[in-house]
Amino acid sequence: MRLPVTVDEISAKWLTAALRFRYPGVEVTSLKCEDVLSGTSTKVRVLLEYKGTGDDLGLPARMIVKGGFEEHSPLMKDMYHNEMRFYRDVLPFIDMNTPRCFYAGTDPSGWQSIVVMEDLRASGATFCHAQRSAGYDDVAARLVAMARYHAQTWDSPEFAESGRYGWVGERFSGWSLDYMRRYLVPEVWRHYAELPRGAAVSRLLHDRDWMEAALTHLGESHRGKPVCLIHGDTHLGNLYVTADGKPGFFDAQVSRAPWSLEVSYHICSALDIADRRKWERPLLAHYLTHLAANGVETPAFEVAWQDYRRDLIYGYFIFAINETRFQTEAVNTAYAARFGAALLDHGTVSPAQ
Question: Looking at the whole model, is its pTM more than 0.90?
Answer without folding.
Answer: yes
